[in-house]
Specification:
6-stranded mixed beta sheet; 3-stranded antiparallel beta sheet; 20 helices; 13 strands; 52% helix
């Protein structure tokens, strides 16, 4: 059964837009909403897709009737070629069991200790940045955020020092993710089993990730103590019915999932945060002033974060404009209704935080960077599902609080010492890959931060 009452594009019209879909996916989706409304249908041969861009519809799919919508979609099946059936791509009983097992690693006491991992890693990065100050040589902020967030997640979740391995592992992560994006954009690509240059690069990158994880597991076994971190939890887990441990492959899938999802997404969001701050000097000045006023010269801790609200709003607003997970898909398992329209079993559901979080009905002047949108009274007045950078419902990202705390600490640490300015020689073009990243990186130059003195300081 095909949904015909929702306006949109039929197969012929969609084929005519194929180049635009491939080259400007974000612009295409934005235009579809402006042309057809907040429900848009796409017919691609026998497949019907419905693009939902309304908070009540998003809530229905992600929360109210979440059991009816699976991750058995092209998007998540492609990701599973890297992560296997880890928490990000699994469904049903497997997902529920793994989610319950991993939740303690993100408990309040563990999050409260996150500063012990974040602060040293960022301080080492900032010390490295000092060497670039005299020459005003530009740095690739995207690359640096990838490496420091990988180091943090390695220490915080797996008790391992990835500082020396970070460049190789981040390169491997990007190679694997870019490979599946290339295949998605080029469905007539040569089969994966052929030894093409691209396929060989993908296999080599995946082998790099696998080797790092399996070596880590082997070291724990040799030590005779799995530990009490995330890896230890996974290795000690036993099936409630059979008493059997997780297979090595299952442990590998969860570790790879957490390594990738735990650093690539936060790195992307932080990269865009620095870009937006550079483009909005008033907001950057207010951020620096808040950090200086609250912290003085001392290093931040997680206990300081409630007193750094604007720093948190800055990151939330960056997530609104450039949500790393810019596309969310689901497949309807049974017939359902949304806004009076029937969805047939098998309908592909498309959600886009990028588009929804630019809807003028919920976000006045949507293209402007306004961290004040997240002042509590303003935030409370918006529909909950108008803002979904971490998804929603039972599948809300398990690491959402981890990411928010980590990012707020990183922003405070950077603002104490540096401000980042755009390199005028480098264009900044959003590239919607697995996450939204600046094409070719984000090249910026460094200067000292310049917090304005408080009235008490000015009087001295």
């Amino acid at each position: 059964m095909v949904t015909t009452t929702i306006p949109g594009l039929n197969s012929r019209q969609l084929l005519g837009q194929l180049k635009r879909v491939q080259s400007d996916t974000l612009g295409f989706l934005m235009d579809c909403v402006q042309t057809y409304g907040d429900l848009v249908s796409f017919q691609a041969g026998p497949t019907t897709a419905v693009f939902v861009n309304q908070p009540e519809g998003v809530r229905h799919i992600l929360q109210d009737n979440a059991r009816n919508y699976s991750k058995d979609t092209v998007q998540y099946n492609a990701l599973s070629s890297i992560t296997g059936r880890g928490l990000l791509t699994s469904d049903g009983d497997l997902w529920f069991r793994q989610r319950r097992l991993e939740q303690p690693a993100f408990s309040r006491p563990r999050l409260a200790a996150l500063d012990t991992f974040v602060v040293p890693a960022v301080q080492r990065l900032l010390d490295h940045w000092e060497t670039h100050l005299p020459t005003r040589q530009s740095i690739d902020v995207d690359q640096h955020m990838m490496q420091v967030t990988l180091e943090i997640v390695g220490k915080a979740l797996f008790s391992i020092d990835l500082s020396s391995q970070a460049p190789a592992l981040t390169s491997a992560v990007l190679t694997t993710l870019d490979h599946i994006v290339h295949r998605a954009r080029n469905p007539i690509s040569l089969p994966a089993f052929l030894p093409t240059r691209r396929n060989l690069r993908f296999r080599a990158a995946l082998s790099t990730l696998d080797a790092a994880v399996y070596d880590l597991m082997a070291a724990r076994k040799e030590a005779g103590d799995p530990g009490d971190d995330m890896l230890g939890m996974l290795m000690k887990a036993r099936d409630e019915e059979t008493g059997q441990p997780m297979s090595e492959r299952q442990v590998r899938d969860e570790v790879i999932t957490l390594l990738i999802a735990g650093h690539e997404t936060v790195a992307s969001a932080l990269t865009w945060t620095f870009h937006l701050l550079a483009a909005n000097p008033d907001a950057r000045q207010r951020l620096e002033n808040e950090v200086h006023s609250v912290l003085g010269g001392r290093l931040p801790t997680t206990a300081d974060l409630p007193n750094l609200p604007y720093t948190g709003w800055v990151f939330s607003e960056a997530l609104r404009l450039y949500p790393p997970a810019w596309l969310i898909t689901r497949k309807a398992l049974a017939e359902d209704q949304i806004s009076g329209h029937t969805l047939a079993p098998g309908t592909l559901i498309i959600l886009s935080p990028y588009v929804l979080q630019r809807a003028p009905a919920y976000w006045p002047e949507p293209e402007r960077f306004l961290p004040e949108r997240f002042e509590p009274s303003t935030e409370k007045a918006r529909p909950r599902y108008a803002y979904i950078p971490f998804g929603g419902g039972p599948r809300l990202c398990i690491g959402s609080n981890f990411a928010q705390i980590e990012a707020q600490l990183i922003l405070a640490l950077v603002a104490q010492r540096f401000r980042l300015d755009p390199d005028p020689r480098a264009a900044v073009i959003p590239d919607p890959l697995v996450t939204i990243r600046p094409r070719g990186g984000l090249h910026m130059t460094l200067a000292r931060s310049h917090p304005e003195p408080t009235p008490a300081e000015a009087a001295v």
